Amino acid sequence: MKTRPIWYDARNLKDEKSTLPFVLTSPIDYVLFSKAQVKNINLPKKTQVIIEIHKMDDIKELPKENIVLSHDMKLLEDVKNLGYQTALYRKIVPETDLESVWQEGLTFNYLAVELTDETNIPLELLIARLQDKSTNLIKVVKNYQDMEVSIGVMEVGSDGVLLKTEDIQELVKVNDYITNSKQSSIKMTKGKVVEVEHIGMGSRACIDTTDLLKTNEGMIVGSTSSGGLLVSSETHFLPYMDLRPFRVNAGAVHSYVWAPNNMTSYITELKAGSKVLVVDTEGNTREISVGRVKIEVRPLLKIAVEVNGEIINTIVQDDWHIRIFGANGEPRNASTIKVGEELLVYSCTSGRHVGIKIEEQILEV
Questions:
Q1: Residue range(s) occupied by CATH 2.170.16 in the chain
Q2: Can you tell me the distance from the alpha carbon of 93 to that of 91, in angstroms, rounded to the nearest whole number?
Q3: Are 22 and 168 in contact, with CB atoms under 8 Å apart?
Q4: What is the architecture, at CATH level 2, of domain 186-357?
Q5: Closest Cα partner for 196 from 343, 321, 346?
Q6: Cα separation of the two ends of the chain
Q7: 198 - beta bridge partners?
Q8: What fold does the segment set 6-182 form as a domain?
Q9: Numbered ranges of CATH 3.20.20.70 in the chain
Q10: Cα dihedral: 206, 207, 211, 214 (round 10)
Q11: For the chain, what is the largest distance between any 2 Cα atoms, rounded to a whole number of angstroms?
Q12: Smaller CB count within 10 Å for the chain: N or C?
């Protein structure tokens, strides 16, 4: 299913005291309020506020980063001229002239439509008219199933949905959708170990995240932008100490760590709040935040593998408790890995500038 923004309609809630806190602490980032309502709510910084207005006075002291929604096209045009993002709201009934609706919507950033009939034919027509336009089509939905259908209509779907429900079970389903939609996958392959070298003392970093990692998860760490090994989370047996399921003992401080959106970061660039990519042994990925990076001097171990004629190496702490995933997804103790064995590898075309993938001639060894 495609990733689309989910708006939540917080106007006219019957049980605002219990429903709204649940929504505001969920992955839902876009929330629609009335002007009177938003004055009395302490909102998290992540929340993108959408305000319904009925008159020009409603935008007094309204931050420019808010999205303004209205049924009144003329009012919304005036608001747009002041620099706000705008959303036109239209209720679609059988007598509605759909040609007028989509043409009116072209003036604004968003066109939010509420369908009164069960059929999705009006939605299909609006999708067809707006699919190559800059206006984002938002459909009002009442549950997760309706959302799923709306996003999948004509293999294009609406650009987003406006969810109207106080059913906690439905909200949980939507939250799961948002979380899962942020996940993607990368292709992991097998590489044969061609060199294992004890290279002496150096600085290595542990990346402590703000979530609990699974036993089959870790991070891609490599010395060059052409790829790296899958270094395991600290979720496997450690003698003399407790597990650190939030941690990846990643490697030497010069290393690349893979990040969301096909980017990389040097370990030394990471800090609290930075985003990194957590990868499992099947190649499934998820975005996670860094809570802390801990750098200490430790003995280091270089492990080099060959993949399709290319050499990829990772330098990790030289210790038994460091795990690197083997070719079959099994955690291997770094200090026991030998030449000729196979490990899981992520391999890609080299070339990075400030972490961004670029096309250029580059040689890294």
A1: 186-357
A2: 6
A3: yes
A4: Beta Complex (2.170)
A5: 343
A6: 40
A7: 301
A8: TIM Barrel (3.20.20)
A9: 6-182
A10: -60
A11: 78
A12: C
Output the six-digit token pair for 155: 């293999």
| Closest by CA position to 234, among listed 142, 361, 322 | 322
Q: For every one of its 365 residues, what pLDDT tens digit does the chain have, with 9 covering 90 and above?
A: 446 889 999 999 999 999 999 999 998 999 999 998 988 888 998 999 999 999 999 998 899 999 999 999 999 999 999 999 999 999 999 888 999 999 999 999 999 999 998 888 999 999 999 988 999 999 999 999 999 889 877 667 899 999 999 999 999 999 888 877 766 789 999 999 999 999 999 999 999 999 999 999 999 999 998 999 999 999 998 888 899 999 999 999 999 999 987 889 999 999 999 999 999 999 999 889 999 999 999 999 999 999 999 999 999 999 999 999 999 999 999 999 999 999 999 998 665 444 444 444 556 66
What token pair was written down for 300?
């280091």
